[in-house]
C-alpha cells in the first residue's frame, strides 16, 4: 500500500497504523523521513514522470499497489482579492491534480487485480468553506467529486473510492496557532477538543479493511462534529 506525504502529521500516522498491522507500506515524500519499516520513495506529485517512477519503484519492491492513500497536500492561505494565480494553481495542482495522477496510476494495477482501495484525505474545510482558503477548500471539495466518480467507474471491479474529511487535528500545522485561535476553534467543535492523527488513521485503516468492502463513494468526517457531515 502507498501513502503520499507520509513523513509527518496525518500521513505519518496513517503509514504507522498500516505498519503496525504488518502491511507492506511505501511512503512518498519530497525530502525523505518515512517511518521506520516503510519504503521511502521520493516523489513530487506535481510531476507526472515522478509519479510514474514512484509507482515503478513501489511495484518492484512490494508488488502492485492495492491501497492508495492520497494525503499529500499544501496550503497557500490568503484572502481572495490577494490570492495570486500561483497561490491558486500551486494548491490545485498539488492537492487535486496530484491526487488525480495518483489515482489514475493506481487504478491501472487495481483493474488488473480486480480489487483495490483508493482513499483521499480531504478536509472539513472542503465541505464547510473557510475564509482565506478559497484555493484549499476548492481542492479538497474536488476530491469528493473525484472519489464519487471513481466509485461509479471502478466499482464493477471491486475497487472502492472513499474520502476521509478531518477536522482540526493536533499537527505541526495547527501547533502554530495562537492560544486565542485555538480556543475559538475548540469552541466550535461539539466534542470540545482537537482530534489526534491516530483517530484519522483509524478511519483510513478501516476503509482499507475487509469490513469496509461494501463502502464506496462515502465521505467520512472525523471532525468532532464540526461539519456534521456537510
Automatic annotation (TrEMBL):
The primary gene name is: fabG_5
Mind telling me which SMART domains this protein's record contains? PKS_KR
Its family remark reads: Belongs to the short-chain dehydrogenases/reductases (SDR) family.
Q: Which residues form the Ketoreductase domain?
A: 2-172
> Cross-referenced NCBIfam families, in alphabetical order?
PRK12826.1-2
Xref: Pfam families: adh_short_C2
Protein name per the record: 3-oxoacyl-[acyl-carrier-protein] reductase
Q: Which top-rank group of organisms is this from?
A: Bacteria
Looking up Gene3D superfamilies in the UniProt record yields: NAD(P)-binding Rossmann-like Domain
Amino acid at each position: 500500500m502507498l501513502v503520499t506525504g507520509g513523513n509527518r502529521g496525518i500521513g505519518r500516522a496513517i503509514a504507522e497504523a498500516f505498519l503496525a498491522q504488518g502491511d507492506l507500506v511505501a511512503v512518498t515524500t519530497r525530502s525523505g523521513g518515512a517511518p521506520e519499516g516503510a519504503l521511502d520513495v521520493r516523489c513530487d506529485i506535481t510531476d507526472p514522470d515522478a509519479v510514474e517512477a514512484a509507482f515503478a519503484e513501489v511495484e518492484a519492491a512490494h508488488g502492485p499497489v492495492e491501497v492508495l492513500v492520497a494525503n499529500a497536500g499544501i496550503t497557500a492561505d490568503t484572502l481572495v482579492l490577494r490570492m495570486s494565480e500561483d497561490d491558486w494553481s500551486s494548491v490545485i495542482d498539488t492537492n487535486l491534480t496530484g491526487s488525480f495522477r495518483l489515482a489514475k496510476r493506481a487504478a491501472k494495477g487495481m483493474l488488473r487485480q480486480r480489487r483495490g482501495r483508493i482513499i483521499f484525505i480531504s478536509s472539513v474545510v472542503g465541505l464547510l468553506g473557510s475564509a482565506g482558503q478559497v484555493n484549499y477548500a476548492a481542492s479538497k471539495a474536488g476530491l469528493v467529486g473525484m472519489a464519487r466518480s471513481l466509485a461509479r467507474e471502478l466499482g464493477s471491479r471491486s475497487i472502492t473510492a472513499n474520502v476521509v474529511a478531518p477536522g482540526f487535528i493536533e499537527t505541526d500545522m495547527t501547533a502554530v496557532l495562537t492560544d486565542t485561535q485555538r480556543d475559538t476553534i475548540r469552541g466550535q467543535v461539539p466534542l470540545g477538543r482537537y482530534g489526534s492523527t491516530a483517530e484519522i488513521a483509524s478511519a483510513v485503516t478501516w476503509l482499507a479493511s475487509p469490513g469496509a468492502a461494501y463502502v464506496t463513494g462515502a465521505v467520512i468526517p472525523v471532525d468532532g462534529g464540526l461539519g456534521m457531515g456537510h
